[in-house]
Write a structure and sequence with these properties.
The structure holds 2 protein chains of 2 kinds. Helices cover about 70% and strands about 5% of the residues of chain A. Chain A has helices at about 10-30, 30-60, 80-105, 110-130, 135-155, 160-190, 200-210, 225-240, 250-255, 260-285, 290-310, 315-345, 350-380, 385-390, 395-410, 415-440, 440-475, 480-490, 495-515, 515-525, 530, 550-570, 610-650, 665-680, 690-730; strands spanning about 5, 65-70, 75-80, 215, 220, 590-595, 600. In chain A, the strands form 3 sheets. Chain A has a 3-stranded antiparallel sheet. A two-stranded antiparallel ribbon of chain A has the order 4-5. Chain A has a two-stranded antiparallel ribbon with strand order 6-7. In chain A, helix 1 (about 10-30) runs antiparallel to helix 4 (about 110-130) and helix 9 packs across helix 12. Chain B is mainly alpha-helical. Chain B has a two-stranded antiparallel sheet. In chain B, strand 1 and strand 2 (about 70-75) form a beta hairpin. In chain B, helix 11 (about 275-300) packs parallel to helix 17. Classes of the chains: A mainly alpha, B mainly alpha.
């Protein structure tokens, strides 16, 4: 029987990092340098192969497939089309950069072997997710990825790290289980989980609506059932992506994880969640407005909440984590716009597709650079609090430029890559709004207007918190002057390979932004195949990025951002003369004077709003097991109390003597005496005590057996009598 | 008369066990090689019978009670699954026991009873009719009872007494169900599809259903269904080889197997489907799953936690079974196989910890993962398998169960899915907390007590590793097993 069909290269791409992780571990027990180089080499080689595949895809090469049937139940199905090649390459690039960066970052860490092993394992699993051709394969690798990346978060083994790691694990497991249930039901409904086969099956079901579709087994599929299944399946992916209200793990896990893992967690693992959501959206709900609306609303809430939390935070990495959450919200908005546009303005849906894909790629690269910049700071001074690291980057131009590129790009400033993707997303919303006025009533139009404004405001907030970070780290002086001198004199603050691992992605980002249609446009076009599986191909997209319509949205965002930064974050700090202090007479909410009159950033992190402590933990750990535990305890007593009642009433046993020594030990004493007389022991001790003990033990056991047996036999007799009575009555 | 060979694997261990009790050897016990040899020989016989297809015939009669009521053996598909499973696990468990019991007392009686249990369990697997099944089912209670009593402590005596009460009481209920199959049906021989094709003349269907429910709970005592499950956690005072093999595989699976026989081969799935009895037993099975997994989370004794986990997992098997469809039978049998491997593996790992480090409670396990790497790696694998994480085999059986449940459709299917979801979540909590504790102890824990703890010897490690390999391999490539199970379920 032929197990495998297709190109084995795809399997190798997944297994290579997984297998080499073990080699790396063994190497690591001998030589640390060898292991580091080995990990770098593995990641770089993987990147080289993926880049090769990507170039092949750009050249119009056909899609690679690999089907392994019968394995893991439904079989593993992999493919490498345009989108998968692009994202595989992005993943490989990120892993390569993170691996190289880890060499210096981890110099003073313990358990590095463990880290590298799980680092590479997660790599393989992530490649598996991005190369999967069906939801089942995606899910398998998704689960492996969740478990192996748990070790990253727990790496420091501090209390905070462990708590974050537990949250991460719990959320990942719950998400995984819910998705699994969704997949079960989906498979039951459609009979397949292969992405390319889902649209036609769904089409069949939709055609019979509003009458429910009847499956072979006689099950009825109503619209609500389809939404339930889709929602369950998407849940686990949404959790991994950090979509509100399941974002709780994100702000906890990122700050405690080592820098290279936070970069990957936020840059690529969240994207694997997005990958799943997109796959579900465009194959199951390609033209479904209610679905799109739900995604859109969730996206908007995520986008706004993330940005708000980021403004409140004073921890560098936590701010970046919240920023990730917010950007995921932007991506979700694009994903949600896709089915809406497909339904009401088909030719424009490509806009949403392009915007989403490009923002995914941008965000991956941006977060790689920003988190590694944070890593540089942390590995030198082991601090992340804005007040403590203030002024660290003043005289470090290289770090400053890289951070600035990332910050500008994520804020969507014109001539950066982030501008391109955000403009596309904004255009998608705006077009949707226009089209909805014609085709659908005010409901959708109203919603889209609100979303558009949330989008612009969140964009502005992005700029404001990035400014807060940038100015605090790279412009302001530390309040402690000696510390500032120390910071300025620190040199060199990173090794060449670390420099390369930050500069290269920053450079790529810069290039992407400068020629939007050249690189980004072509990349996005390449990815279209993944989106339009459900609804045919779209026309070629031509966008004038620097026309007035396009740029006006960015300008609104920038204005809002500057306004927020100047008036809300800085408040009176800049305006000693109280000319502009409209919001608060004395101080800003975000910056206060401490006892010595120095201005410090205030931690505004809203602890009381922590959904985890407020709802999830009590619900999962107290209420649910509490109630069920109580019921269970009751149940477990039923049979016992029955037995006790029986024993107290109709099966009462006679009081028996239990004390040792009070029993008749005649037999033991007699035999003991005889033995003592005829075959005395060598040490002249008597046989009697031993024999007595044995006899008593035997007697006790015997009594136990006989009493239990008699009880059992009585029950048997009761049964027999009942049967007898019945037969007599029946005949 | 090559069918008579079916009697051999049942009687050989029983006779060997009896002889071992009667004749006292010079040393403290018989040589391990002899015992292992007998067990291994028996397993080889069973596997030969299965693989050569010798068992496919009319069966072998041991003796007749009356003209049409005989104790006879016959090996059909489901029986092959259970017999094959038991005979695969027994030699490995025996090997493990040699090391575990090396310092114990009453070793001779332990091994003789352990060997006798093997024969009795095979008797259940190969039983050709309900009477034979019942006879061996009762015998199983009697031979395993002294094993629970083994330590002779107060706790052990309490547990064994409870075990006896529950089992014999249950058997009495089961007996009533048996009588009705005998009277109402034309035969007690196991026939797929049942003997009550269109109800029975002279009997109200509701009476038959009531008897089914009674027998279900009667056999359910061994399968630890709520509300007759309490003996199982109590019985974990027995030595680990007993809890692992008997209370995670042989005994509880005998209960589940008996229920499968009762449901699919005596009363018949078509007869039961959609009746009130169907819904009643389904409800209790689901309650048991919830009960087992909730209590496991609350339990801090390591082995008892696993015992509660067994309660919920055996009910997974029954959840498949009560779907009353061929798909349900496949699901039940697949979980019967896979769960045996993963649970015995986790029990053996727990036993290894007790044996080498003398830790009984979950909170005492901090940091042991690094001291006993192989043991805990195996435990971690079995934990993931129990949770149903792909690519382990627990995932496959869970997949089958849910497919069966959803194929059933309606409220029952949805409830089953929700219950499984809850249980899987609890499983992850009670298993992973152990794993994480062992590998990543909370900072500041005093780990000095762990000094000098090492992995156990090869006799304990070999079975563990084999189990991990088997359940991983079955998960990665499960097609042969699921295919043959589908064939069995189709008849």
């Amino acid at each position: 029987m032929n197990l495998m069909q297709g190109n084995i290269l795809l399997l190798i791409l997944i297994l290579w990092p997984i297998c080499t992780s073990i080699i790396g571990y063994i190497l690591g027990t001998r030589s640390k340098t060898a292991r580091d180089i080995w990990a770098d080499a593995v990641c770089l080689s993987e990147f080289a192969v993926m880049a090769g595949l990507l170039i092949r895809a750009f050249g119009g090469g056909d899609t690679l497939y690999l089907d392994i049937d019968g394995v893991c139940g439904l079989g593993i199905h992999l493919m490498a089309d345009g989108f998968r090649c692009v994202y595989g390459t992005v993943a490989a690039l990120m892993w390569a950069c993170a691996a190289v960066f880890s060499r210096e970052y981890f110099t003073q860490y313990r358990n590095r072997n463990r880290f590298y092993m799980f680092f590479l394992m997660t790599f393989g699993a992530t490649m598996g997710v991005f190369l999967s051709a069906d939801l089942f394969t995606a899910f398998i690798f998704f689960e492996i990825m969740s478990f192996t990346s748990f070790v990253w978060v727990a790496h420091d083994e501090t209390e905070e790290a462990m708590s974050a790691a537990y949250t991460y694990l719990a959320v990942a497991i719950i998400g995984g289980l819910v998705t699994l249930m969704g997949l079960f039901m989906l498979y039951d409904m459609l009979g397949t989980l292969t992405l390319s086969q889902i649209p036609s099956e769904i089409e069949k079901i939709r055609n019979t609506w509003p009458k429910p579709y009847i499956t072979e087994y006689g099950g009825a599929i109503t619209p609500s059932r389809l939404y339930l299944v889709g929602g369950l399946t998407a849940f686990g992916f949404a959790v991994k992506a950090g979509v509100w209200p399941m974002h709780i793990w994100l702000p906890k896990a990122h700050p405690v994880a080592p820098a290279s893992s936070s970069a990957l967690l936020s840059g690529i693992l969240t994207k694997s969640g997005i990958f799943g959501i997109i796959a579900i959206t465009c194959n199951m709900f390609a033209q479904d407005i209610p679905w799109g609306r739900t995604i859109l609303i969730l996206g908007a809430v995520t986008m706004f909440t993330g940005a708000l939390l980021a403004m409140f935070s004073v921890n560098l990495k936590r701010t970046l984590a919240c920023s990730s959450m917010s950007q995921i919200g932007f991506i979700m908005t694009g994903t949600g716009m896709y089915p809406i546009l497909s339904e009401i303005a088909k030719e424009e849906s490509v806009m949403a597709a392009h915007g989403t894909v490009l923002h995914m790629i941008n965000h991956s690269l941006i977060k790689l650079v920003l988190f590694m910049a944070a890593g540089v700071i942390f590995m030198n001074i082991h601090k992340l609090d804005l007040n403590e690291i203030r002024g660290y980057g003043r005289k470090k131009p290289l770090l400053k430029i890289c951070f600035a590129i990332g910050a500008l790009s994520i804020s969507g400033i014109p001539f950066t890559s982030g501008y391109v993707s955000k403009t596309l997303l904004h255009e998608a919303i705006a077009l949707g709004k226009e089209a909805s006025i014609i085709s659908r009533g005010m409901g959708l139009t109203g919603l889209l207007s609100v979303i558009e404004w949330v989008f612009l405001i969140s964009g502005g907030m992005t700029l404001s918190y990035m400014l807060k970070l940038f100015i605090a780290i790279f412009v302001e002086k530390n309040t402690d002057e000696r510390l500032q001198e120390e910071y300025d004199s620190q040199r060199p603050y990173m090794r060449t390979e670390s420099v390369l691992s930050i500069v290269i992605p920053a450079g790529i980002m810069l290039l992407m932004g400068l020629g939007p249609n050249m690189i980004m446009g072509r990349t996005a076009t390449l990815c279209e195949g993944f989106w339009f599986a459900g609804s045919g191909t779209a026309d070629q997209l031509v966008i004038h990025f620097y026309s007035w319509e396009s740029i006006s949205g960015a300008l609104i965002s920038i204005t809002i951002g500057l306004f927020l930064y100047v008036f809300v974050i800085r408040g009176t700090y800049i305006n000693e003369g109280r000319i502009l202090s409209v919001f608060l007479a004395e101080h800003s909410l975000f910056i206060r004077s401490d006892n010595e009159g120095r201005n410090v950033y205030v931690n505004m992190w809203p602890k009381f709003l922590d959904l985890e402590e407020l709802i999830y933990r009590p619900l999962l750990l107290k209420i649910l097991p509490g109630i069920l535990g109580f019921v269970s305890a009751l149940i477990s007593q039923i049979m016992d109390s029955f037995i006790v009642i029986m024993r107290r009433t109709i099966h009462r046993q006679k009081a028996t003597r239990v004390d040792t020594g009070s029993m008749d030990d005649h037999l033991a004493v007699v035999t003991g005496r005889l033995l003592d007389r005829y075959i005395p022991k060598k040490d002249k001790t008597s046989y009697i005590p031993g024999l007595v003990m044995r006899e008593e033990q035997g007697a006790r056991t015997q009594r136990l057996i006989s009493s239990s047996l008699s009880f059992g036999l009585i029950l048997v007799s009761i049964g027999l009598i009942m049967v007898l009575i019945y037969t007599l009555a029946a005949t | 008369m090559d069918q008579q060979i079916l009697i051999v694997p049942v009687l050989l261990p029983i006779l060997a066990g009896i002889l071992m009790i009667i004749f006292k050897p010079k040393n403290k016990t018989y040589s391990p090689i002899l015992i292992e040899g007998i067990v291994l020989l028996n397993s080889i016989i069973v596997w030969t019978i299965i693989l050569t297809g010798m068992g496919r015939g009319d069966g072998a009669t041991l003796f007749r009670l009356t003209y049409d009521l005989s104790v006879y053996f016959k090996l059909d598909g489901a029986g092959m699954v259970f017999a094959g499973l038991v005979s695969f696990l027994w030699p490995l468990a025996t090997l493990y026991s040699f090391e575990y019991m090396e310092h114990g007392e009453h070793i001779r009686s332990f091994f003789s009873l352990y060997t006798m249990t093997y024969g009795v369990t095979l008797g259940i697997a190969m039983a050709g009719n309900l009477v034979t099944l019942y006879v061996f089912y009762e015998m199983l209670t009697l031979v395993t009872f002294p094993l629970v009593l083994h330590d002779r402590t107060r706790e052990a005596r309490r547990a064994s007494r409870m075990y006896l009460y529950y089992s014999i009481g249950g058997a009495a209920c089961a007996f009533m169900g048996l009588v009705f199959v005998l009277v109402g049906g034309t035969t007690t021989d196991f026939t797929l599809g049942g003997v009550f094709k269109n109800g029975v003349a002279g009997f109200d269907n509701n009476i038959l259903l009531a008897m089914y429910v009674l027998a279900f709970f009667g056999f359910g005592v061994k399968a630890a269904i709520c509300p007759v499950q309490k003996w199982l956690p109590a019985a974990s005072v027995a030595p680990t080889p007993v809890t692992a093999l008997l209370h995670a595989v042989a005994v509880v699976k005998s209960g589940a197997f008996a229920i499968l026989r009762l449901t699919y081969y005596c009363y018949g799935a078509d007869f039961l489907r959609g009746t009130w009895a169907h819904y009643l037993v389904s409800a209790f099975v689901m309650i048991t799953i919830i009960y087992g997994s909730t209590m496991a989370v609350k339990e801090i004794h390591f082995k008892k936690r696993l015992a509660y986990s067994t309660i919920s997992n055996v009910s997974y098997i029954l959840l498949g079974a009560v779907m009353m469809s061929p798909l349900g039978l496949v699901a039940a049998l697949s979980h019967l196989i896979f769960h045996a491997f993963m649970k015995i593996c986790s029990f053996f790992a727990a036993g290894a910890v007790m044996h080498k480090a003398n830790r009984n409670y979950v909170y005492e396990l901090d940091g042991l993962g690094l001291k006993m790497p192989v043991t805990f790696a195996c435990f971690a694998a079995s934990a993931l398998c129990l949770m149903g994480v792909p690519p382990f085999s627990g995932f496959i059986s869970k997949w089958n169960i849910v497919q069966a449940a959803l194929g059933e459709g309606g409220v029952l299917g949805i409830c089953a899915v929700v219950v499984l979801l809850y249980s899987a979540l609890m499983t992850s909590i009670y298993m992973l907390t152990v794993v994480v504790r062992a590998y990543i102890p909370p900072k500041g824990t005093d780990l000095s007590a762990n000094e000098g703890v090492t992995d156990p010897g090869w006799k304990m490690l070999v079975p563990l590793v084999i189990f991990v390999i088997v359940f991983t391999a079955m998960g990665i490539y499960s097609r042969p097993i699921t295919d043959s199970l589908s064939m069995i379920a189709a008849g």
